[in-house]
Amino acid sequence: MTGWPILFSALAMTAIVGVRYLLTSGTFAFATRLKHPGLYRGLEPQMRREVGWSLASAAIYGVPAGVVAWGWQAHGWTRIYTDIHAFPIWYLPLSLFAYLLIHDTWFYWTHRWMHRPKLFRIAHSVHHDSRPPTAWAAMSFHPVEAITGAIVIPALVFVIPIHVAVLGTVLAIMTVMGVGNHMGWEMFPRALVHGPAGRWLITATHHERHHAAYRGNYGLYFRFWDKACGTDLGLGDFGGSIAPADRRRERVAADTHADG
Q1: Residues 103-140: pLDDT tens digits?
Q2: 3-state secondary structure (DSSP) of residue 95
């Protein structure tokens, strides 16, 4: 019977990740319908496929998250803490930035690795089958790719101390940016995207170009690794939105690069 608590924890976290995905992607998809009617017209079969892959990914993300939750609550194995005074207050933003930077580094190199032709055909092509991506595509991964994404934050909580509220912030940023970067229009103001901050932060305008070109712009939050490694393709052409007709042309063009 000792295995039941960890099993329940994994199932509970799977449900939480799945519901979080449905609520966040659903909200962004609804906002897209209001702001850019017709942007996803003709993509209904693709969106159903994206939801299916994403819910399968939610189960993969839920297992390590469940182990972390069980280990933290039942055994105190992690470095997650609840007493805000356990570390200096300045450590809160420092830990947030550290988690985002390490996650971004992991994502950049595993994402770039996934674009090697063999791995692309085996796994990453599932994500790029979203041509063009929609708000439902953020977690549309082959299980191999889902595993690479599911382990990094759970691994970090065993190594780097983090307040539970900061951890929640990390997960919220990961979710919102993951969905927002795929929805086909830019939610941030042009002044931010094309200003000094936009030279280092990744938003939909940057990530959409990755889906159009099938190369470069591999980062998740920051453009640091793309710039350092010469893979930064710059920003896409839609500072505020991209027309449905233009996105359909991108979808046709992407078919010629489907080998990664």
Answers
A1: 999 999 999 999 999 999 999 999 999 989 999 999 99
A2: helix
- Full domain range(s) for residue 157: 4-255
Quote the CA–CA distance of 132 and 135 in Å, as a whole number.
10
Domain total for the chain? 1
Residue given tokens 């591999």 in the structure block:
218
The rounded Cα 248 to chain-centroid distance in angstroms is: 23
Residue 128 within a domain = yes
Q: Does residue 99 form part of some domain?
A: yes
pTM assigned to the model: 0.87
pLDDT band for position 2 (cuts 50, 70, 90)? low
Q: Say if residues 22 and 175 touch (Cβ distance below 8 Å).
A: no
β-strands 80-81, 162-163 pairing: parallel
**Distance linking the first and last C-alpha atoms of the chain:** 47
Q: Within a 10 A sphere around the Cβ of 42, how many other Cβ atoms?
A: 11
- Spatial CB neighbours of 69, under 8 Å, sequence gap ≥ 6: 9, 12, 13
Asked if residue 260 is part of any domain, the answer here is: no
Q: Is 68 inside any structural domain? A: yes
